Amino acid sequence: MADINHFEYGWITPALSYALSVLGSVLGLVCAGRIRTARTAGQRAWWGLLAAWALGGTAIWAMHFMAMLGFAVDGARIRYDVPLTAASTAIAVVAVGIGLAIVGTGRLNPLRLVAGGVFTGAGVAAMHYTGMAAMRLNGSLGYDSTRVILSVVIAVVAATVALWLAMTVRRGLAIFASALVMGVAVNGMHFTGMSALSVHLHERAGGVSGAGVSALLVPIVVAVIFGVVGLLYALLAAPTDDDVAAAAYLDARRGPEPAPAAPVAAPDPVGLRARSTLGQPGTPFPSRRDTPTRRDTPSR
Question: Which residues are listed as membrane-spanning (predicted)?
């Protein structure tokens, strides 16, 4: 059995992984709060997608990869299968998105919360072990079943708490405190799952396919930066709850728009308007019967 080191670079990788999980949790909670105040189904879907990306992509998956940078096996070079690594990202985002849809499409109740937490937690655990399966090294991986089950339980509990916070927390300080708790839960699940791992190196050295950590680091960091910047821009550009409330108040004060008044014709006592239309296209000429004659004119 090979020696495993989870903190090859010391405190820097766990500190960065925790910071990423807190940052993603803050953005995800803020975006989830916008789901409750959205007026249309399209707006709810948009904010749900952003919340799923923030929580699943940044708070969970990016945290996982950052922590994996400190993972090392003595005597083995670690590489990663790119399609499986990308699949683990999709699993995390989709699982969180479906969990938010379960708890956010109706009145929040314990049944919805538990269903969303179980589904999301199972998705988070699937993301973690899919990312572990993406590792390529000259050896075989083994897992302690008890610790694996414990990590799945932690993932389900953490996901349930995260969904409950996403649907109930609104104030800035409460959001930040919740994000700190979520960061502890996500990192706790990750390192519990990592403690279940054991590596048995092969006696013969063989070629290992896949991309190295350095090859994946740059595109992942760029994707995280652009994702965070995009989330911040979407949050800053969107109207706040106070803006929506102020607009609704002004609409209520203004009341319904009055209907346009019908045009009133000016008085025409001597028939000048009728005379001015004679000879125009579509205007009938007066008949002989309607035209006064000399005989009909009274004499003086």
Answer: 15-33, 45-72, 84-104, 111-129, 149-166, 173-191, 211-236
Burial of 99 (0-12, 13-18, 19+ CB in 10 A): buried
How many other C-beta atoms are found inside a 10 Å radius of the C-beta of residue 93?
Answer: 21
State the burial class of residue 101 (Cβ atoms within 10 Å of its Cβ: 0-12, 13-18, 19+): middle
Helices 172-195 and 110-133 sit at what angle, rounded to 10 degrees?
A: 50
pLDDT at 246 (0 to 100): 66
Nearest to 137 by CA among 286, 247, 27, 2: 2
* C-alpha to C-alpha distance for 113 and 233, rounded to whole angstroms: 30
The number of beta carbons lying within 10 Å of the beta carbon of residue 249 is 10
Q: What are the pLDDT digits (tens) for 228-263?
A: 888 888 877 776 666 666 666 676 777 565 556 566
Question: For residue 192, what pLDDT is reported?
Answer: 92
Query: What phi, psi does 293 have (nearest 5°)?
Result: -100, 170
Q: Which burial class, exposed, middle or buried, applies to 104 when counting CB atoms under 10 A from its CB (0-12, 13-18, 19+)? A: buried
pLDDT tens digits for range 97-111? 999 888 877 777 888
Cα pseudo-dihedral 62, 64, 69, 71, rounded to 10: 180
pTM: 0.74
Whole-number pLDDT of residue 129: 92
Domain boundaries, the chain: 21-202+215-243
